[in-house]
Amino acid sequence: MSVWDDLQGQDAVVAQLRQAAEGEGLTHAWLFTGPPGSGRSNAAKAFAAALNCDQEDVSLRGCGECAACLTILGETHSDVAFVRTEKVTITIDEARDLVSTAGNRPSSARWRIIVVEDADRMAERTTNVLLKAIEEPTPRTVWMLCAPSPADVLVTIRSRCRAVALRLPPAAAVAALLVKRDGVDPTVAERAARAAQSHVGIARRLARDPEARERRLETVRFPLSLRGVTAAVMMAEKLVKIATEEANSSNDERDAAEKTALLATLGAPESGTLPPAMRSQVKQLEDDQKRRAKRSVTDSLDRTLTDLLSFYRDVLIIQMGNAVELVNVELRSELEDFASRSTAEVTLARMDAVNKARTRITTTNVAPLLTIESMAASLI
């Protein structure tokens, strides 16, 4: 077992990080970039474990079996902080807390490590709070920032970081990981990896959840029934409903558990009105949960539109001569029939409409249903 085992299809990245963990080319700040599903945060976590591994022999660091590796991989190590947000952005107060943490010397490990998994979700003024800490790092502190691309991070930050560029692994590598790590049937693993377009997290969810596979197939098949404006409106409503239900199903139970835990921590009375100090903390939790719910719906819609985009991607592949493998192989006959009734130029325009909808939903405060309805109408 090794901390690098989950980084399938990233041989160049593993070699770069192994070398740094052995002391060659190690620097105080790193920027991990790559498309969603490429394993940015997994690479950063593995690197953090290798840097603080208990093995004395540098060539063995990242063993995945010592106490340091296991606690870092489990995100319970006292000297390694993992920062991610389930809200729209990382706040400036959270950034200040990071800087304060980074200023402390490690308590037991070689390095104090700060892993920021959503560096692209910081506003400019928030990122500027980190700038001085990264420019003038505390000895024995290493920053690891993760973002989809270098352009998603301020140039003043990325110019001070060593780049680690990941790519989407081949579907075969993702399928092999699902079989090895999760015990998934090889046929199911192959179909899930292909449907997820090599996104490891989504592939795992599809492989383990038959209902998720059905919802995805329903989304992909939507263009086959588009015959007019009424059908487009109905499709939009269904897409938003699928995404919202999927997001809410995972949030409701978690929200209730968080509130119960907070009330227990505060020593709240079992009945009656809460004291003002307690009410303010409960209100803060509820506000955070609302922001998280909004982020969850946005992310779920983006995934749904990515699935829809795979339909038009396959249509374009067929129209261009089947140069590469289809994502939705099981729909080949229907895709070929659909492709025969349009041109590559039309398909590209439809793909552009889907991508514009994704951008509007993830970057602006628009009503999702209106955006999806507009997109659906342009797909007719």
Strand order of the largest sheet: 2-3-4-1-5
- Helix tally equals 15
State the separation between the terminal residues, measured CA to CA: 51 Å
**How many strands appear in the DSSP assignment?**
5
- Portion of residues within helices: 55-70%
Compute the CA-based radius of gyration: 23 Å
Secondary structure category? alpha/beta
Shape category: globular
Please, could you describe this protein's structure?
The protein has 380 residues and is of the alpha/beta class. The protein contains 15 helices and five strands. Strands 2-3-4-1-5 form a five-stranded parallel beta sheet, with helices on both faces. β3, α5 and β4 form a beta-alpha-beta unit. α10 packs across α12. The radius of gyration is 23 Å and the shape is globular.
